[in-house]
Amino acid sequence: MLFGPRKFRKILIANRGEIACRIIWACKEMGIKTVAVHSEADRDSLHVRFADESVCIGAAPSAQSYLNIPAVISAAEITNVDGIHPGYGFLAESSYFAEICEACNIKFIGPRSSVIRLMGDKVEARRTMKEAGVPILPGSPEPIQSLDEAMAIVGEIGFPVIIKAAAGGGGRGMRIVREESELEHALETASNEALSAFKNGDVYIERYIERPRHIEIQVMADEHGHVVHLGERDCSIQRRHQKLLEEAPSPALTPELRRQMGEVAIAACQRVGYSNAGTIEFLLDEDGRFYFMEMNTRIQVEHPVTEMVTLADIVRNQIRVAEGEELAYTQEDVIIVGHAIECRINAEHPDTFAPSPGLITAFNIPGGPGVRVDTAIYPGYFVPPYYDSMIAKLIVHARTRELAIMRMRRALESMVIEGIKTTIPLHLRIMDDPQFQSGQYSTKFMEQFIERRNGNGGSAAGARA
């Protein structure tokens, strides 16, 4: 082989869509064979077409296919793979799946199962981070057992507070409480929602920050104790706790604050013995104080913005680390150049956010300097209704943030997806929004953006398909 012998001969990708394709591209460059698993609905998907082998693992619903651990492991065994890359979502943060891989002597390309389990328990993660000296928001040290206990916690930290699922994320099992009369009902509904979503009804309470920035630090760690961070991403533009757009570096961070947050993220990883790619997520308040929120023990959807400003290949790094290699660079080698923005293109109506599955009749990928598109769609592809609605990621890179915004607008205007509705018009409106352009926004941006737009009587941009 061109670069000498490798520990991985063949990797199974336990995912679908653009991230499965992204992993395949990295493996091809490394001379590693790939196996795609797919549902019956994804027989004609690009990740199936471009992998060296493919195995159908079940019916369209994810519970019968991509979340079906016995089927995934069976596919790995019959194709004789050395490792499994979980991507993001599905089984990526399942400590049980990682443990099964370890038991079957198949390398899980991610952290150890014990670390995934530790960081997946939000209460335990908060306790661990506090012990590591990472700032955390005041709140309950254990899951809330009664209304009286909740009242005592609120009496100490004051309103408003936020109730969160101990085993969850993505906004499920989460309620904001601003006064005492709301507390009992919020606890009950949050716990029920958490039980339904995560099979665990435990919830805890934190102080609620009204207008925070959502800042995450990308980390890479090898299995020899070396940890570096690759700077931050600003993920504050969200709808119902789901990210719509990310950028790096954050307009809100000074070099000193970036250094402090990076050092804290590294300390957190060292505390838990972390290895592989991960993300430490923080809330940044209006006074420049930051607090640990959670750790994502996997690659993130928005990893391309970090790759664009650092030239790192995070997926390649993941595979190398999983092979037992040391990181090929130190913190001093990491240099952030320019500015990158990512827009998540979803198969949704741009105004109502209603899902829009269906047949793609035309698709044009924008080009030009500093433009990257990660996608698994093509003309004639049928977007299925069974999975997440994201169908593409449009990423741009430029020397300055102002130029990156202009470049993103140009790329969005030349990105054509016909046959279904997409969120391209929404992103165009965000690019034109003065508050976004100023960089002075928070996680409240979308609420304010929709209010401003409704007050102005709507926008003609919503007509774009």
Descriptive terms for the model:
465 residues, alpha+beta, Rossmann fold, Dna Ligase, domain 1, D-amino Acid Aminotransferase, Chain A, domain 1, five-stranded parallel beta sheet, 20 strands, 24% strand, globular, disordered N terminus
Give a verbal description of the structure.
- With 465 residues, this protein is of the alpha+beta class.
- 34% of the residues lie in helices and 24% in strands.
- The chain has helices spanning 17-30, 46-50, 69-78, 95-103, 113-120, 122-131, 147-157, 180-198, 255-272, 303-310, 314-322, 401-414, 424-431, 434-438, 445-455; strands spanning 10-13, 33-39, 53-58, 83-85, 107-108, 161-165, 175-177, 203-207, 213-221, 227-239, 242-248, 276-284, 290-296, 339-346, 358-359, 362-364, 371-375, 382-383, 390-398, 416-418.
- The chain has an eight-stranded antiparallel β-sheet, sandwiched between helices. Strands 3-2-1-4-5 form a five-stranded parallel β-sheet, with helices on both faces.
- It is globular and about 60 Å long.
